Amino acid sequence: MAGDDPFSIVTENKERDEVNRRIAEAEKRKRIEVEYQKWKVSNSGTMEEFIAWSAEENKKRLEDEKRKRDEIIRIRKEQNRIQAINDAKKRKEEAKRKADEKRRKLIDMR
């Protein structure tokens, strides 16, 4: 029984992890084969050529994603800078308004 041996749980987990890893590898191989068949329809080439083409496409996609992320970061930084300037202006105006109120109160007290 599994409850009798504390190591049986570890063994079961290792076996399950191995089965899941093999399933994931098989699914990955199948996806690559399907992509290769699609690619082969419009290109006449070997699996090696497909792998090289696929690697190049992945590289382009990753570069494009990085460029988009960098652009988003740049835009957010600019928005934060503008917001900080606006906040500083509001604080300055509020401080000026409070100073004016104090000045008026002092003048009224005289």
| Total DSSP helices | 2
Helix-strand makeup class = mainly alpha
Strand percent estimate: under 5%
Overall pLDDT score: 89
| N-to-C series of helices and strands | HH
The helix content, as a percent range, equals over 70%
Our measurement of the CA-to-CA distance between the termini, rounded to an integer number of angstroms, reads 94 Å
Question: In one word, what is the shape?
Answer: elongated
Query: Rg from C-alpha positions?
Result: 32 Å
User: Low-confidence segments, ≥5 residues, pLDDT <50?
Assistant: none
The main sheet comes to: none
Tell me the total number of β-strands: 0
Q: Topology, please?
A:
Layout: H1 6-42, H2 47-109
Descriptive report:
The chain contains two helices and no strands. It is mainly α and 110 residues long. 0% of the residues are buried. The model has no long low-confidence stretch (mean pLDDT 89).
In short:
The chain has about 110 residues and is mainly α.
Features:
110 residues; mainly alpha; 91% helix; elongated
